[in-house]
Amino acid sequence: MGKFFADRPTLRGFVIIGLIALLVVLLNLYTAVLAIGMLLRIAFFLAIAFFIFLMWRERRDEISTWSTRETVVFYGSALLIVIALGLYVWHGWPGYEQLGFIGVVGCSGFAMWRIWRDRHHYRV
Predict the structure, then answer these.
(1) What total of structural domains would you count in the chain?
(2) What are 73-108's pLDDT values in tens digits?
(3) 101 in a domain, yes or no?
(4) In-domain check, residue 45
C-alpha cells in the first residue's frame, strides 16, 4: 500500500485533506477551523507587508533620487495596494466590490510599473 501512495502524491494529498475534513466534522471543530482560517489570513497579510518592506529597504537609496512626483505616485500606489489588501483581509468583499478591489490593485500596480519603467528605460 505504501508504494501505491508513493507513486500518486496528489491522491495522497487528497486523502489527507479528506481525513482532516472528516475529523473536523466528527469532532465538531468548526469554530477551531474558523479561528485557524482567520489567523492564516492575518499571517498572509503580514507576509505580504513584510515582502513589500524588504523590497523597499533594498531599493530606498535609488528611490530617493527620483523626483517628488515620481516618489509620491510610487509610494502612494504601494500604500493604496497595502490598504486595499488589508481591508480585504479584515472583512472581505462580496459582489461588485471585488471588481473594485481588482481595479484598485491593478491601476495602482500599473502606476508603480510605469514609474519604475520610466526611471529604468534608457533611450539610445
Answers:
(1) 1
(2) 999 998 998 888 888 877 777 878 888 888 999 999
(3) yes
(4) no
